[in-house]
Design goal:
455 residues, alpha/beta, 40% helix, single chain, 6-stranded parallel β-sheet, pyruvate-formate lyase- activating enzyme, 7-stranded mixed β-sheet
């Protein structure tokens, strides 16, 4: 092959949401590492990823294929860019959580959608493209969606990869790492089924990388990229206590617990003395828990019987007992059964707790979840997904007025006034946290303030 195939990944982010711009997605990096390991002909493909100036970069790079990854709230923008690319005769792939959980929203400006886990499907598609210079005879490929004329075709479901250690460490050369922080995944899926969360519906079952695999990725980030702080973005890092114990031993033997600080996600009902001791040995400096509510009624609606308000409170106490320096949590308000009283229960819980900081979200219906089903049933969301304004899913009080308002017992103004009470409490805690950090680490405190002010 004389000329390489140019493949341009587009990470669809909302420029109004700072959190979307902070870190590049690892999904495309897993695809690239997988195809490079299992398909020698991938040497004839040149991969690049961008997260802004999409039309300008498409014109400059002149790709043969673009691969779009996006969440539901950015899907309208993805369709716009896909149409722009198709007008230039560029093949368009789309993958990620949105198209996997909402395949019937697939747009005719796209050639193929990858549903579910993408590595094996992406490999098969690229084999076809390199052979034919286009995507042909797709019916036998599992886990995809495409149009044949005006007919939408969804092929047979692709099985999940049972041993995810067979997926190589993501290829981070696809993007620039220009800080001393990075994130990684050590598992796929979650054993719980919270009504608002799409992750457990996307992955269907939980699978863990082995401690050895996780250890090797940590080593690569440490020695190759000079990273000294790593955040685990798993749904639930601590779910497999045996694996955490094995990983801690490997890190201690290598001396990495003295070089790396870690941030992990936890769940209140799984936080006990043993796990706290392991996190302390691992040099975990911060944790995040989805506590969701301080109201027993609302917590049960959101998370079932798997956790209680007492579990939430006790987990914070335990983490602080073991000097986990920064303890964060997320909360949700605005469910259809919320009242002023239930929301204030959550605020009072926060005030009584030792949380260092927190974030509060307005309940958003995400595709694939029971909350989404409820929102459609009650006509908050159109059943005709071709006409739905997807950007409304990303609109909370932090970026404007939410257009989807599920709280039947509160109007928007009442909910907003309650939201402001949370923000006041949040600012108080963040100020104290910055002050405390400045005493021990002035540089880190300065960088935190700079990030808040300019991003």
């Amino acid at each position: 092959m004389k000329n390489k195939i140019r493949f341009l990944f587009l990470n669809m982010v909302n420029p109004k949401r700072n959190t979307e711009k902070l870190y590049p997605p690892l999904g495309p990096a897993y695809l690239v590492s997988y195809i490079n390991k299992y398909f020698p002909e991938s040497k004839n493909i040149e991969f690049k990823m961008i997260s802004n100036n999409f039309e300008e970069n498409i014109n400059h790079y002149n790709p043969n294929i673009i691969g779009i990854t996006c969440v539901s709230q950015n899907y309208d923008y993805a369709k716009k860019i896909a149409k722009y690319a198709k007008e230039k005769k560029i093949q368009v792939l789309i993958g990620g959580s949105h198209i996997s959980l909402c395949p019937y929203s697939f747009d005719k400006s796209m050639d193929v959608g990858i549903i579910g886990e993408g590595e094996e499907t992406f490999l098969e598609l690229m084999k076809i493209y390199l052979k034919n210079n286009k995507f042909l005879k797709l019916n036998k490929i599992k886990g995809i969606i495409f149009f044949e004329g005006n007919k939408l075709i969804i092929t047979k479901k692709r099985e999940l990869i049972k041993n995810i250690d067979t997926i190589p460490i993501p290829d981070r050369t696809l993007f620039k790492i220009d800080t001393h922080e990075a994130y990684m995944f050590s598992s796929r899926g979650c054993p719980y089924k919270c009504v608002f969360c799409s992750s457990s519906r996307l992955w269907e079952m939980v699978r863990f990388h082995s401690a050895k695999y996780v250890f090797n990725e940590i080593k690569e980030l440490t020695y190759k990229y000079n990273i000294n702080r790593i955040a685990f973005w798993d749904d639930l890092f601590i779910a497999n206590k045996k694996r955490v114990k094995e990983l801690v031993k490997l890190l201690e033997k290598e001396g990495l617990t003295r070089k790396i600080e870690f941030h992990v996600g936890a769940r209140a009902n799984l936080v006990d003395e043993d796990i706290c001791k392991l996190l302390k040995r691992m040099n975990v400096k911060s944790t995040n828990m989805g506590l969701e509510s301080g109201s027993p009624k609302i917590l049960k609606y959101l998370k079932g019987d798997s956790v209680s308000v007492d579990d939430n409170f006790n987990a914070i106490e335990l983490l602080k007992k073991y000097n986990i320096r920064n303890c964060f949590a997320t909360f949700i308000i605005g469910t259809h059964i919320d009242t002023k009283e239930t929301i204030l229960e959550t605020l009072n819980f926060i005030k009584k707790s030792k949380l260092d900081s927190f974030t509060v979200f307005i309940l958003t219906p995400l595709p694939g979840t029971p909350v989404w089903d409820y929102a459609q049933k009650e006509n908050f969301i159109s059943k005709d997904l071709t006409k739905f304004d997807w950007e409304t899913l990303g609109e909370g009080f932090e970026v404007g007025q939410p257009k989807i308002h599920l709280a039947k017992n509160l109007n928007k103004k009442e909910l907003y006034n309650l939201y402001i009470k949370f923000m006041i409490e949040k600012k108080k805690r963040e100020f104290y946290m910055i002050f405390r950090t400045a005493i021990f680490n002035p540089k880190k405190a300065f960088l935190y303030i700079k990030n808040k002010l300019f991003n």
